[in-house]
């Protein structure tokens, strides 16, 4: 009984910190209809800033907390709202998601530049104080966390439901033009909500720091639990969000206490937030979210079959020349870039044509790689098997998530990616107890690997363009533009989504098999959850609506670690630039290659 009470108190304290973070997320969404994927990254950066002031500079804890939560975080929220989110007012869900991911990745880069990796302990608040509840001790930090959770939940409820400012915030979201006629200022109210939301993200991150310690990715992805709590409240009910956060904290605490300590159950405990996110998305009634995909501007023109054949021949000739001229190291890097280009082709099919933003596409690459590694064969049939297994997994995910769309579907792919990461890819199920597997190569020399990767890219690219010109491609574009209109005309929108998910996963799985054979050794670290985010950003930056964009995106993704290893001081800066570029180009999913197409069209004209 004493242990149950202790774990209950620990769960309520952790849930209280989640409630603070989730409250800020609900506030920004309910007042702007923009789901801030970078909410956790804001809390992470502000937690580092708090460490800098309180631990490194020696300021009193209360003063450091006041400066970060009361000054630094609100100012940062104002900057994000003014220069990024205000430009996305009325944009489709997919575009705002990409911008949020850009903010997330950029902030991780900022933290890496300012605070290089090292241990940074943070003292709890009021660590000398506390009370005894039965035989359990509740520390001063625990009491502060619970008090903050209650005050934040009550304060936000009063703000949004009992004050003119809160009512005006909500009115500006529903009808900004009409609200402005009554004297409100929508831009200032939006800025206020983002300032408060950022302050709450900072407060939640600081409260959680003594529990999870300062880590770039761990603290950023910890917000997945806050996503789940916010979705329990359907992104608008603060009481339900508060209750959901406390419930999630209790579930995690009881799992630590009562689940077995075997490797599988340790992985299961780590996957509980993602599992709960997935369950909440599937069982709860859908909120009236805007259905949206990546639609910014009109997609680039689809080339004819003749043009595709000529371009494929020219590309093949260039690759043959490169294979003969470059040294083996460069040939291997180019082959890896083309493999990443094949992964980008799966994004072209799913996001560019289908309008579905996936935050877990690299997971299918891991499925293909694990399949090929487990087969232990150098036969081309192993690559086909990897693609087939990934296609089955993609179809299962699509069938499971048939009833969700837009933002909910994107978050479902994020939950799926973390489930696979914790339960499969990071566990002995995939890579054994050593955490890595040896893979026999299909071809030996780097030049032959480059030719193999190029040939596969050409064949997959031709297939993707053939799908775009065919009946399925036309239906995909129609569903992306208006799924309601397609359903009215009798199209089975859900089965179109299943086909798109399955084909896209098959392409990613094929790339995963090639990746495994090129690397010869694959490990769990190659397919971590965070790897999905740069993949999406490079796809959008280069152009997620064209095969040319996939090629450019693959090469850029290959160059990122090369530049980071060659110029260690540039590592964090490169991540910052990636996030800024993605946030800036989120409205134009045709990306950089579209500029070249427009320049060529102007020259011909």
UniProtKB/TrEMBL annotation:
<keyword id="KW-1133">Transmembrane helix</keyword>
<feature type="transmembrane region" description="Helical">
    <location>
        <begin position="265"/>
        <end position="284"/>
    </location>
</feature>
<keyword id="KW-0029">Amino-acid transport</keyword>
<feature type="transmembrane region" description="Helical">
    <location>
        <begin position="240"/>
        <end position="259"/>
    </location>
</feature>
<keyword id="KW-1003">Cell membrane</keyword>
<feature type="transmembrane region" description="Helical">
    <location>
        <begin position="447"/>
        <end position="467"/>
    </location>
</feature>
<feature type="transmembrane region" description="Helical">
    <location>
        <begin position="6"/>
        <end position="27"/>
    </location>
</feature>
<feature type="transmembrane region" description="Helical">
    <location>
        <begin position="216"/>
        <end position="233"/>
    </location>
</feature>
<dbReference type="InterPro" id="IPR043428">
    <property type="entry name" value="LivM-like"/>
</dbReference>
<feature type="transmembrane region" description="Helical">
    <location>
        <begin position="567"/>
        <end position="585"/>
    </location>
</feature>
<feature type="transmembrane region" description="Helical">
    <location>
        <begin position="92"/>
        <end position="115"/>
    </location>
</feature>
<comment type="similarity">
    <text>Belongs to the binding-protein-dependent transport system permease family. LivHM subfamily.</text>
</comment>
<protein>
    <submittedName>
        <fullName>ABC transporter permease</fullName>
    </submittedName>
</protein>
<keyword id="KW-0472">Membrane</keyword>
<feature type="transmembrane region" description="Helical">
    <location>
        <begin position="59"/>
        <end position="80"/>
    </location>
</feature>
<dbReference type="InterPro" id="IPR052157">
    <property type="entry name" value="BCAA_transport_permease"/>
</dbReference>
<dbReference type="InterPro" id="IPR001851">
    <property type="entry name" value="ABC_transp_permease"/>
</dbReference>
<feature type="transmembrane region" description="Helical">
    <location>
        <begin position="191"/>
        <end position="210"/>
    </location>
</feature>
<keyword id="KW-0813">Transport</keyword>
<feature type="transmembrane region" description="Helical">
    <location>
        <begin position="305"/>
        <end position="325"/>
    </location>
</feature>
<keyword id="KW-0812">Transmembrane</keyword>
<feature type="transmembrane region" description="Helical">
    <location>
        <begin position="331"/>
        <end position="350"/>
    </location>
</feature>
<feature type="transmembrane region" description="Helical">
    <location>
        <begin position="536"/>
        <end position="560"/>
    </location>
</feature>
<dbReference type="Pfam" id="PF02653">
    <property type="entry name" value="BPD_transp_2"/>
</dbReference>
<feature type="transmembrane region" description="Helical">
    <location>
        <begin position="498"/>
        <end position="516"/>
    </location>
</feature>
<feature type="transmembrane region" description="Helical">
    <location>
        <begin position="143"/>
        <end position="160"/>
    </location>
</feature>
<feature type="transmembrane region" description="Helical">
    <location>
        <begin position="381"/>
        <end position="399"/>
    </location>
</feature>
<feature type="transmembrane region" description="Helical">
    <location>
        <begin position="34"/>
        <end position="53"/>
    </location>
</feature>
């Amino acid at each position: 009984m004493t242990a149950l009470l202790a774990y209950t108190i620990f769960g309520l304290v952790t849930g209280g910190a989640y409630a603070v973070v989730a409250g800020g997320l609900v506030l920004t969404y309910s007042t702007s209809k923009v789901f801030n994927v970078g909410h956790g990254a804001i809390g992470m950066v502000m937690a580092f800033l708090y460490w800098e002031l309180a631990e490194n500079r020696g300021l009193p804890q209360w003063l450091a907390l006041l400066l970060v939560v009361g000054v630094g975080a609100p100012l940062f929220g104002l900057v994000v709202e003014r220069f990024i989110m205000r430009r996305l007012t009325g944009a489709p869900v997919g575009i705002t998601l990409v911008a949020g991911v850009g903010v997330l990745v950029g902030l991780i880069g900022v933290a890496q530049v300012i605070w290089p990796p090292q241990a940074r302990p943070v003292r709890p608040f009021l660590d000398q104080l506390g009370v005894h509840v039965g035989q359990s001790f509740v520390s001063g930090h625990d009491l502060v966390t619970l008090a903050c959770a209650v005050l934040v939940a009550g304060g936000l409820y009063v703000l949004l439901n009992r004050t003119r400012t809160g009512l005006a915030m909500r009115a500006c979201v529903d009808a900004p033009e009409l609200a402005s006629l009554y004297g409100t200022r929508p831009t200032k109210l939006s800025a206020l909500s983002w300032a408060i939301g950022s302050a709450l993200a900072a407060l939640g991150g600081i409260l959680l720091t003594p529990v999870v310690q300062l880590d770039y990715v761990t603290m950023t992805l910890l917000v997945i639990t806050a996503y789940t709590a916010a979705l329990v409240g359907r992104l608008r009910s603060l009481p339900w969000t508060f209750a959901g956060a406390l419930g999630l904290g209790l579930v995690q605490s009881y799992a630590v206490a009562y689940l077995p300590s075997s490797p599988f159950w340790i992985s299961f405990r780590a996957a509980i937030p993602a599992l709960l996110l997935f369950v909440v998305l599937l069982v709860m009634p859908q909120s009236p979210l805007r259905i949206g995909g990546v639609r910014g501007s009109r997609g680039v023109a689809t080339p004819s079959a003749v043009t595709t054949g000529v371009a494929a021949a020219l590309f093949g000739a260039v690759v043959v020349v490169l294979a003969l001229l470059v040294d083996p190291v460069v040939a291997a890097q180019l082959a890896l870039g083309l493999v990443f280009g094949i992964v980008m082709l799966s994004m072209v099919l799913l996001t560019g044509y289908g309008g579905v933003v996936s935050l877990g596409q690299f997971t299918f690459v891991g499925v293909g790689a694990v399949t090929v590694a487990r087969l232990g064969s150098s036969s081309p049939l192993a690559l086909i098997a990897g693609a087939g297994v990934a296609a089955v997994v993609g179809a299962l995910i699509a069938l499971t998530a048939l009833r969700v769309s837009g933002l909910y579907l994107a978050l479902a792919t994020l939950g799926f990616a973390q489930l696979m990461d914790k339960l499969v890819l990071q566990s002995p199920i995939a890579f054994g107890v050593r955490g890595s597997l040896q893979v026999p190569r299909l071809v030996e020399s780097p030049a032959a690997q480059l030719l193999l990767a190029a040939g596969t890219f050409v064949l997959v690219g031709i297939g993707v363009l053939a799908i775009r010109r065919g009946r399925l491609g036309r239906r995909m574009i129609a569903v992306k533009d208006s799924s309601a209109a397609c359903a009215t005309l009798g199209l089975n929108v859900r089965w179109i989504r299943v086909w798109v998910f399955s084909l896209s996963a098959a392409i990613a799985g094929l790339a995963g098999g090639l990746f495994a054979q090129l690397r010869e050794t694959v490990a769990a670290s190659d397919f971590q959850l965070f790897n999905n985010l740069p993949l999406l950003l490079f796809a959008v930056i280069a152009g997620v609506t064209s095969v040319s964009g996939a090629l450019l995106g693959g090469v850029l993704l290959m160059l990122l670690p090369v530049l980071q290893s060659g110029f260690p001081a540039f590592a964090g800066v490169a991540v910052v630039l990636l996030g800024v570029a993605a946030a800036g180009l989120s409205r134009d999913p045709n990306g950089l290659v579209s500029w070249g197409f427009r320049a060529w069209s102007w020259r011909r004209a």
